[in-house]
């Protein structure tokens, strides 16, 4: 069975600085997807960024980028130029690739990010 | 925009009561999911449905059941609520086909069982 581990329960960053959130996973599959979701306080969870395992290039979405190390089974999220609105719980998630897969996500335990002004 | 709504943001029930949590999505998604979110445990899948009247158990189905009579609506049922079911419940939906099948989440229902 696949597992996702987030070893940092809480992180803090100064506004405008860069922070990296860690995520490791365990799987025997070769094809899968990885996601970072953001859950702001009292607001809905939204997708931040996603990565296909077969792509070597790291995904980037504006100030958000990932460092995907397939051999090490590591998938970290880097937030550049941190803003107050980035304060949230961040979840790393794994999903098996399609072709009959049921699209279930496996989540890590989350990292609570605080942004200091 | 995809919209997933849940019937209540906050709910307080007594032990032994039957509890219904409702979820509605407006984007004709085939897949719908119920998760439970607890501090230090992340999100855990309770049940999911891939079509009307179809359902599969997730990782923690004990004490829960679900109903999907219409494509847009997915209900989570606590037959006899217990205090250990006090939690945040999140509903999500997604397309069945496609590359990413991104899951879209509702705002959550914080259930307290006294």
Summary tags:
heterodimer; A: 117 residues; mainly beta; Immunoglobulin-like; 6-stranded mixed beta sheet; 12 strands; globular; B: 114 residues; 4-stranded antiparallel beta sheet; 11 strands
Unreliable stretches covering 5 or more consecutive residues of chain B = none
Helix content of chain B: under 10%
Individual helix count of chain B: 0
- Percentage of helical residues of chain A? under 10%
Q: What is the H/E string of chain B? A: EEEEEEEEEEE
Radius of gyration of chain A: 14 Å
Q: Could you give a short description of this structure?
A:
Chain A has 117 residues and is mainly β.
Task: Give the SSE layout.
The complex is a heterodimer of chains A (117) and B (114).
Chain A lengths: L2 E3 L4 E5 L4 E3 L2 E3 L5 E8 L6 E7 L7 E2 L2 E6 L4 E6 L8 E9 L9 E2 L3 E6 L1
Parallel strand pairs in A: 2-12
Antiparallel strand pairs in A: 1-4, 3-9, 5-6, 5-10, 7-8, 8-9, 10-11, 10-12
Chain B lengths: L3 E3 L3 E4 L5 E7 L5 E8 L3 E10 L2 E4 L7 E6 L2 E6 L8 E8 L9 E2 L3 E5 L1
Parallel strand pairs in B: 2-11
Antiparallel strand pairs in B: 1-3, 3-8, 4-5, 4-9, 5-6, 7-8, 9-10, 9-11
